[in-house]
Amino acid sequence: MEEFNELNVTEEQEEEIPELELEEIEDFDPESASISKVDKDENYDESQIQVLEGLEAVRKRPGMYIGSTGPRGLHHLVYEIVTNSIDEALAGYCTQIDVELLPDDVVRVSDNGRGIPTGIHPKEGVSAATVVYTVLHAGGKFGGGLYKVAGGLHGVGASVVNALSEWLEIQIKDGENIHFQHFDRGNYTEQLKVVGKTTETGTTVTFKADSQIFEQSTEYDYVTLLKMLREQAFLNAGVKIVFTDKRTEEQQGETLCYEGGIRQFVEHIHRTKGLDPITPQVIYFAGKKNDATAEIAMQYNDSYNEFIMSFANNVHTPDGGTHETGFKNALTKVINEYGKKFGYLKDGEKLLGDDVREGLTAIISVKMTNCEFEGQTKGRLGNPEIKPLVESVVQEKLMDYLEENPEAAKAIFEKSMAAQRAREAAKKAREAERKRKSVLDSVSLPGKLADCSETDFEKTELYIVEGDSAGGSAKDGRDRRYQAILPLWGKMLNVEKARIDKVYGNEKLMPVVTALGTSIGEDFDISKLRYGKVIIMADADVDGCHIRTLLLTFFFRYMKELIEQGHIWIAQPPLFKVARGKQVRYAFTDEERDMYISELAGENSAKVEVQRYKGLGEMDPEQLWETTMDPERRTMIQVTLEDALTADETFTILMGDKVTPRREFIEQNAKYVENLDI
Predict the structure, then answer these.
(1) Residue 27, class by beta-carbon neighbours within 10 Å (0-12 exposed, 13-18 middle, 19+ buried)?
(2) Which of 235, 251, 272 is the last residue of a domain?
(3) Rounded to whole angstroms, how far apart are CA atoms 167 and 218?
(4) Distance between CA 257 and CA 265 in Å, rounded?
(5) Which positions ≥6 away from 333 have C-beta within 8 Å?
(6) Catalytic center residues
(7) 93 and 155, same structural domain?
(8) Which of 63, 139, 196, 487 is deepest in the core (most CB within 10 A)?
């Protein structure tokens, strides 16, 4: 498969975008683009359900089908069932989807689509609906024109959810009868049966995730599901999704329906992050060729970060693909052509991809008959034919917009030119840094770094420690063979409010960059990482939280691969020292403190001393080793990146300029914070 460059579009990488004849979509009707109707005269019955292979090994290896058996996999069960209803909407037969969280974490998903076929399958000898829920790769999306556009192309969603559920029930309304069937861990004892009469159509699926599979928890997070459902509502303009949480007496829920589609998606992202647009409205354009459609909504804001989300048949493609590459190529080309045409760019001057995408929020949504996803996780789109479609749409429609809106075009160019100047300044700073390091490589290591002797990358650890006092204790208490210490002092640069040129030469951040050895920006190379674990160790108070957040923001914006590959950790120092004579206990929570007080006091209620640690510097080297640095006894949290959208949104809210979104975020999440000495 052809590899596509999704970074800067350089002069060598840019190619001529072919002229592609598009079917014009005047005042683009979301229904006509996001819902591709099939010929309603075509029969949708049991003969259309195709069987590819039997259901095996799902319960033995669930991670192969849903990614993990943790929270991510648990919530993916809901996504798979909702996707089937969304596919009915894409086919033009479903207008409302109801998702309910019931007591005991039971999930019920209902739609008003056609209903799964209930007749006897010609090959399997049982109901077609039974086949869909018990056989892998069984469904109506493999051809034949029933679903011209569908996200669940692999045909594994329904059967996998059934296999990983303690129990699952389906209710199907076909306009005449109500059909019902019950399953236990994917098995059934009774065939699909008629339980009533109706004039309605649709499918209802009710299931309870199996605690034997999801041992960590089967409790759904309301906010996680709300984000997923809202995303689907944005992508399918006009489809109503009603989400209700009925697990407690104080029920909560939302009705999600967005006639503006992905235009409103962009507005929602900016509003949630507290970003101010620099162009007056969301720029929107769409085009169609044969059975494929492409929609793009974009708007520039006052931040320094780009945020692009791409989708194919409503499936998020976090790793991009041909549709995202086509957008980036065309965006860079059009803005450069406009700049030359109207005198914004001098002869020989050229904006790069990073320049024109600074501060850009964009949603790219394509829909086609056969999506070629890479892997079951569908992280990247590979269809080569969609690239010229997206390029042509952007090239034609964006140029028209810029020419018709000169003030918006000027604002975009001013931001892009500022980004170019910052990039050139960063290049000079980077070259100066290279020259300084080349004089004597060993001198390039930070002066305050206490390095370790071990050379095996997998065994080494770097503790980034807040304050010289704590750094001194850490240096004396560490295991010098494999633990390195880098003390930091004072508040560092908030990179959310600064471009990369401000990072180079920064006295707080550059020691971190140099110690790690990977560099940043264009020069970032994870293969040069000097330590297997990078551990942030800060005080358990407000200032310590700020230091951790500043460092995590820096890693997320400039060294995201360190997080993605699991190298970033957060140390958990104790909050209390509980002592009676020579007996000492270290408590990490209020509950542990009270338990140790009771334990040491004994029946005689002897006097117990409790010390609340205000900072790491209060611990002597031995205490710091015993509580926070000894691999046999320490507690650490590994920083992971489950959801890039949520992470990006959170860092922007916490570290951006706007106070109101930050205050709302803190108010909503204060209940999750424990033991902070505020």
Answers:
(1) exposed
(2) 235
(3) 13
(4) 11
(5) 9, 14, 17, 395
(6) 466, 539, 541, 543
(7) yes
(8) 139
Residues 454 and 464 in one domain: yes
Residue with tokens 């006897």: 120
- CA-based nearest residue to 295, from 236, 360, 354: 236
Q: Going by DSSP bridges, is the β-strand pair 461-466/533-537 parallel, antiparallel, or unpaired?
A: parallel
- Of 294-303, 440-449, 597-606, 639-648, highest mean pLDDT: 294-303
Indicate the number of domains in the chain.
Answer: 4
Q: Which of 562, 593, 612 is the last residue of a domain?
A: 612
pLDDT tens per residue, range 126-177: 999 998 998 876 555 434 444 445 544 344 589 999 999 999 999 999 999 9
Domain holding 394, by residue range, is 262-421
| Contact assessment for residue 371 and residue 316, using Cβ atoms and an 8 Å cutoff | no
Residue-wise burial string across 638-652, b where 16 or more C-beta atoms lie within 10 A, e elsewhere: ebebebeeebbbbbb
80: left (phi over 0), alpha (psi -120 to 50) or beta: alpha
- Coil, helix or strand for 190? coil
Q: For residues 295 and 577, what is the distance between their CA atoms, to the nearest angstrom?
A: 59
> Measuring CA to CA, how many Å separate 64 from each of 57, 84, 376?
9, 20, 8
Torsion of CA 144, 146, 151, 156, to 10 degrees: -70
Please give the structure tokens belonging to residue 288: 């169609």
The whole model's pTM is what?
0.73
Do residues 174 and 318 share a domain?
no
> Which amino acid is present at 31?
E
Query: Model confidence over 645-664: pLDDT tens digits?
Result: 566 666 566 666 555 655 66
Measured CA to CA, the distance from residue 503 to residue 512 in angstroms comes to 11
| 272 and 208 in a common domain | no
The answer as to whether 256 is a domain residue is no
Q: What is the separation, in whole angstroms, between the first and last Cα of the chain?
A: 54
Rounded Cα gap, residues 286 and 366, in angstroms: 10
Q: In the chain, helix, strand, coil percent, each to 5? A: 40, 20, 40
